[in-house]
Amino acid sequence: MKGVDLNADLGEGMGDDEALLDLVSSANIACGGHAGDTGTMARTLRAAAARGVAAGAHPSFEDREHFGRRELDLPPATVREQVLRQLEAIAAVARRESISLRHVKAHGALYNRAAREPALAHAVAAAVREFDPGLAFYALAGSALARASREAGLFTVEEAFADRAYRADATLLPRSEPGAVLHDAAAVAARALGMAQEGRVRAVDGTTVRLSAGTICVHGDTPGAVAMARAVRTALEGAGVVIGAPAAG
After folding, report:
1. Helix (H) or strand (E) holding 136
2. Residue 45: which H helix or E strand, with range?
């Protein structure tokens, strides 16, 4: 019987967090770089813990004005410092709430740029390892970020995106291009099923992309996110796929 994690990016002020937490098995919580503050971190951590959802940190470029989706040309050492600062921020809140963090997943432009640039990928992975080498690390399947995570000795969970379009090289179609974000719940659910059961997804040029999907993301800030997450969970469970957070070690 196959198993997969279902994750969403939360604590970003989008309003559907509690409904999404009823559907996912892990939550990536904004920790101040692109969204969130101590209050939203605490509320999201508590809501996740109440449902048995694994809580993780969701660091980004420190760029709240652009929601962390603008690519910044920063030295790897600066990125490492920014990631560490955000991990420390959410960890302090988690300690006050007596909640353990389980994983880290970078956000937005940081995630996508580190997925293709080894120097940046190593900076992010190094920050996670320095902060807590026992944390799982979510990274785009087949990317430089996943390779850097493994090289850093982190428990690496390769990620696929049910609600994003793929290019033939297994990278995500940039949000600036038409069709980059998918909104049809049935289509998103079908893609998630193909990812979980067969390790594949169709790229925008019609070719088949092979990927490993230890976790599948449905973005919390996408319109209709709750309906899509519900359709994905229903499709996976209906096919006998067990949904649960990855167990490190």
Report:
1. strand 136-140
2. helix 38-50
Please, which residues have CB within 8 angstroms of residue 177's CB and are 6 or more apart in sequence?
none
Q: For residues 80 and 123, is the Cβ–Cβ distance under 8 A? A: yes
Compute the distance between CA of residue 151 and CA of residue 163 in angstroms, rounded to an integer.
29
Cα→Cα distances 116→34, 54, 136, 155, Å: 21, 27, 20, 20
Tokens coding 9: 């990016």
DSSP letter (8 states) at residue 64 = G
Amino acid at 216: I
Tokens of 132: 């807590």
| Secondary structure of residue 131 in the 3-state scheme | helix
| pLDDT tens-digit map of 199-243 | 999 999 999 999 999 999 988 878 889 999 999 999 999 999 999
Q: Angle at the Cα of 67 (from 211 to 204), degrees rounded to 5?
A: 35
Would you state the structure tokens that stand for residue 112, as one six-digit string? 């996508």
Q: What is the pTM of this model?
A: 0.95
Radius of gyration of the chain measured on its C-alpha atoms: 16
Q: How many CA atoms lie within 13 A of 101 on its CB side?
A: 31
